[in-house]
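Complex record, two chains
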Amino acid sequence: MIAIEHLAKRFSASGVAKKGLGGGLARLGRGSALRIVHAVRDVSFEAPDGCITGLLGPNGAGKTTTLRMLAGLITPDAGRMSVDGIDVVAQPGAALARMGVLSDARGLYPRLTARENIVYYGRLQGMPADAANARAEQLAQMFEMNALLDRRTDGFSQGERMKTALARALVHDPANIVLDEPTNGLDVLATRALRDSLRWLRSPEGGAKCIVFSTHIMQEVERLCDGVVVVSHGRTVACGTVGDLLAQTGEADFEEAFVRLAFSSDERAHHEVAGPFAGAA
Amino acid sequence: MNNLRMALTVYRKEIVDALRDRRTLLTVLISSVLMGPAVLVAISSLVATFESRAELREVYVVGIEHAPSLKNFFERQTYTVKPAPADFETQLRKAKLADPVVVIPKDFEAALLRGDAPVVEVVVDSANQRSQAGAGRIERLLGGFGRERAALTLALRGVSVDLLEPLQIEDRDLASTQTRATQITGMLPYFVMMAVLYGALNAALDTTAGERERGSLEPLLMNPLDRWVLVLGKWAAVASVGMLIAVLSSLSFLPGQWVLRSDTLAAMFQYGLREASMFLVVLLPFAAAVSAVLMAVAIRCKSFKEAQASATVVMLAASLLPLINVFSLGSESPWYLWVPALAQNVLMTHVLKGETLGAAQVGVPLAVCVALTALGVWFVARTLRSAAVR
């Protein structure tokens, strides 16, 4: 189970691109005009075991920053995060051991085979070599990537990369699975295969995992999620099942409901004035 | 214990990754291992040309027919007189002719008899190194002719020849044969250091900026291990690659010695297992420090290419600092030992001179290298997390 309470994070960003010494000098020359960016203002949600919780929000809503804080990459300014009751900030190691995270960046080592990529992470999670190897084969079975297992990942397609990265994140059989926009760049078949895998992981025979995944695609949420958390401008603006959210907004279409929840009336008006393409988001 | 096992896991993976980068590795290995012998062969063939020129005992002359007495002197000194080609000036300029040319005036014998001191030119091109090298020999030969004439004239008048030489001049060279050899072999330490630098460069950049560029650093940090364990494993792998290059290039001079073409140089250039191991004592800490520094520079860069540009500063410093030792012409200051790269160059030059290194000489650069390594590893570990997400 993953619980997040009143999470907040702000960054100080300078207008000048920071590139080593030159950027530093340029900043000095301009006088350091620092801009404060509130990436996450107040995000709270709870993701129970045996459920798929969707983190839905427009681009730049703070989804990735939230998940990065959950993975211990960024220290939050305020708020609490716990994984199975373990505080992420106080015990990042113990929390990470209970989580499998597929982040926005999912780079593989091109000179290693898929198996070596997966086993390496298993070893880093503290698994013995044999166990990691057996688990790699088991995951390959599950994601139908047996043929890929002993090939170097250099020439892999997007879908193949994604499968390898997912297997790598799940190698230690974590009770909690966090996925940041997992369907990005996948074709229809790969997306469906991923959806099936996630459903299986949610089921009691798959381990009744707690699955959190972020997306900006409505259909994903409608088809897959037991619970939805709508995030906009760094805040949690709504929580509940798809049905709850439809009822709350009085809309029949989930996309309409989402737009109503995520954007203020001013923003909606602006998009409509700006033209048909700008409103297609 | 657990941390050690984790660091080993990282180390093993990084080594496998580096060894699979065959093309880069092969380029570095071939250039570093073959470079030692190649430089030695180049130097020795140069020295061998000088030696063979001197052994040939030839003198190129224009107008020898005007000076039978000089021809007679040359032949008594067992020199072969050869007529210079007509366009000898052009040939000297283009470095086609490797010997200086003696030009004798038409009225040589008559002027000599009158006591008019005829002008004999020794024509060289100072840009043509080989002709320049022979000039001293030819001038000494002509001086010998002059002294003989003078001695004969004085003897005819009943004056002692000793009057001509009120002093006796004798050279006493304090340099050992090995010390003299370092004038020629002095650049070898420089080449070895460059090999180590370039060997570590690729691995250091790949494991930091490369990892960022591939997008594999962020997921890597989502594993429950301490950042410094991760960085230590990575650093150890990079340092191992640098050290491997150091070992190979230091050992490459051993067979390199067998191919020396010049006997003189072979006698002067004493490089055995003792020298090779002294080189390694100096180079291994250097490889460790360079790896850490390069990683620290590269971790701030988003891409491999950007890291290469930033690393140029390190490479430039490491290649320019040893030049201080070259330009100071052998007079060393104590602070040299505190400057990385310069210290290593100084120490390796000492080894080539056949000197033993004292504890202080090895200790100071070692301490500097250890400090640099610690600083680099600390900086990478500190920056790693913010580097992953930006």
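Note: Chain A touches chain B at residues 19-20, 68, 71-74, 92-97, 99, 101-112, 116, 120-121, 123-126, 165, 168-169 (CB under 8 Å).
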